[in-house]
Specification:
InterPro entries: Homeodomain-like_sf, Transposase_8. Belongs to the transposase 8 family. It comes from Salinivibrio costicola (Vibrio costicola). Pfam families: HTH_Tnp_1 (PF01527). The chain has 65 residues and is mainly alpha-helical. The protein has a domain at 15-55. Helices cover 54% and strands 0% of the residues. The protein has helices spanning 15-26, 32-39, 43-57. Helix 1 (15-26) packs across helix 3 (43-57) and helix 2 packs across helix 3. The longest helix is centred in the C-terminal third of the chain and has 15 residues, at 43-57. 8% of the residues are buried. The model has no long low-confidence stretch (mean pLDDT 82).
């Protein structure tokens, strides 16, 4: 299957940016949606980063046991 050339470049975020975004979304007075909008990223991307952060900390769900 050929690669599509749209002219868009996929944004790559640093680990530091991701961790700060996740920590910001953990604050009780903030929602994931408001943080994602403020950082101009998709809500599901922030949710994915949050889930990966939980796994990294050892608090994530163990899927496919």
């Amino acid at each position: 299957m050929p690669a599509y050339k749209t002219g868009k470049k996929t944004a790559q975020y640093s680990l530091d940016f991701k961790l700060k975004a996740v920590e910001w979304s953990y604050e009780t007075h903030r929602t994931v949606k408001s943080v994602a909008e403020a950082l101009d990223i998709h809500t599901l991307m922030l949710v994915r980063w949050s889930f990966l952060d939980l796994i990294r900390k050892g608090n994530g769900l163990r899927l496919f046991l």
